[in-house]
Amino acid sequence: MLAPFRLPNFWAEQNARARMQPIISLQFHPRDIGTVLIGYPEGAVIYSFKQNKATKVFHYHIPKGAPGGDNNATLDRNPKLLNAAWHPTGQFVLTGHDDGSLVFWDTKTGQKMLARTLTDTHVDKEGSGAGATMFGGNISGETTRLAKIAWCAHQDPDDTGILIAGGNIPPATGLTFLELGRTPNYSTSSWQILEDHFANPKRQRVLPTPANLEVLDFCLVPRRTPWFAGAHDPVAVIALLSSGELTTLSFPSGYPIVPCNQLPLSMSLLHPFAKVIAQSSVDRARWLGMTENR
């Protein structure tokens, strides 16, 4: 049954016209069950059950002259939020937006640390430095929709990476993994060191999926624990494709996994779709004596 406890729409405090905005993301703090990250279309808030209020607000704004994720520097805009996720230790928050921007926030101060796309950094900054990529060159153009993001950790929760569905430059498809490595110590690191950590991942790889099909959603398969939003030390990922099919990949290598001896039959039939079914008669005695063998 539903509990009598209810939370108001906290974004209405930021925008009085946003009362009907739905919650599109909800995630408990990985180390504090009394804190929850709530995502609305216009931004995200951190709510504390102990203080009974929204303690931090994250609102992504791109000024006119900055390219943003969609390379449209002619407008002053607030890209719609699509995803929000905690850093595995809860020190940072990552929000994904409909222009392809990935925005890192400091949960202690509520300040924006870095806005980037899969290829470009500082996309929210005006001037000649805006749009520079880690590979050189300029903003690469319009990107695909950010379907989902997950901030993963290895056995050490400070050794992290980000798995992203979408955000690629068409016609590229697949899952992208930004391997960030060990997070700098917050209390002893400068703001610049933390910003550089998110701007320059150790490695960026694409987990290949079937060509010309987008990944709409994915589910990480953790090695031991189902907690931490299922993103602690994952060994595999199950991805839902735009065709309705499933694909299973090892993580983070991206090698295909044969599902026949891993998944229930009902899921295996979606991996890929069954095209042909054969049938034959079996006498009752043999049918009742059948046992499953994997």
Helices and strands in order:
Elements lengths: L24 E4 L6 E6 L2 E6 L4 E6 L22 E6 L5 E6 L4 E5 L5 E5 L31 E6 L5 E7 L9 E8 L8 H9 L3 E5 L7 E8 L11 E8 L4 E5 L14 H4 L15 H5 L6
Antiparallel strand pairs: 1-2, 2-3, 3-4, 5-6, 6-7, 7-8, 9-10, 10-11, 11-12, 13-14, 14-15
Describe this protein's structure.
- The protein has 294 residues and is mainly β.
- It has one domain (10-288): Methylamine Dehydrogenase, Chain H (7 Propeller).
- Helices cover 6% and strands 31% of the residues.
- It is built from 3 helices and 15 strands.
- A 4-stranded antiparallel β-sheet has the order 1-2-3-4, with no helix packed on it. Strands 5-6-7-8 form a 4-stranded antiparallel β-sheet, with helices on one face. A 4-stranded antiparallel β-sheet has the order 9-10-11-12, with no helix packed on it.
- The longest helix has 9 residues, at 191-199.
- It is globular and about 75 Å long.
- The model is unreliable at 128-140 (pLDDT under 50).
